[in-house]
Design a protein that fits this description.
196 residues, mainly alpha, 3 strands, 35% helix, elongated
Length: 196
């Protein structure tokens, strides 16, 4: 007995020589839209979730705090914290001079004590306070800069003649405040009291 095939051809296959899938035009349009939308959505979400103050507009949008100056980021010369120099034409010296002028106008008889603070280390407290003090001293304003960083103990005046700091005075070990003042080390009108 011979077995007959149970399959038979009903119609022969036909079709075009152009592939049906994938559709190159649809894929390219989708890829271009995704390439534009995904980064836009990511940037929008990053902006909404950001908790940093990036510019003056962010500060004005959420508070009524006056902005007296903006200090640009820049490279310090020779690793020094001092960027303000007499007759300096660079942008840091100019920014600190603008801050000094605006601060004088803003305070105008309201006080002469300033505190520079922030919540995290490395945000520029030492840099701002030292350079603002230098900017004030350069116009012959008598300045006393007190380093209150008792935890980290950054030194404003390395190599100065003062051997005592604020800590021995606060602990009662030192009774003469003149022993802890480093006078004229960085500028004749700038006195410094180190932390300790």
């Amino acid at each position: 007995a011979v077995v007959e095939p149970c399959a038979r051809v009903v119609d022969f296959a036909d079709g075009s020589r152009v592939p049906v899938s994938p559709n190159k035009v649809k894929v390219m349009v989708f890829a271009m839209l995704a390439g534009l939308l995904v980064p836009a959505v990511a940037l929008y979400v990053a902006g909404v979730l950001s908790t940093k103050v990036e510019n003056r507009g962010d500060l004005h949008a959420h508070t009524s705090i006056p902005v007296l100056g903006e200090i640009p980021r820049g490279n310090r010369l020779n690793g020094s914290h001092i960027a303000v120099v007499e007759n300096g034409k660079d942008r840091l010296s100019e920014a600190f001079r603008i801050l000094r002028a605006n601060l004088g106008t803003y305070l105008d008889g309201r006080g002469k004590v300033l505190m520079v603070t922030s919540t995290h280390s490395g945000e520029g407290k030492t840099f701002i306070s030292l350079n603002l003090a230098m900017a004030l001293a350069l116009v012959r304003s008598k300045v006393l800069l007190i380093n209150m960083d008792l935890r980290k103990g950054t030194c404003f005046s390395p190599g100065s003649k003062s051997v005592y700091g604020l800590v021995p005075f606060l602990e009662g070990e030192l009774t003469d405040p003149d022993q802890m003042i480093a006078s004229g080390y960085l500028h004749p009108f700038l006195d410094i009291i180190e932390a300790g």
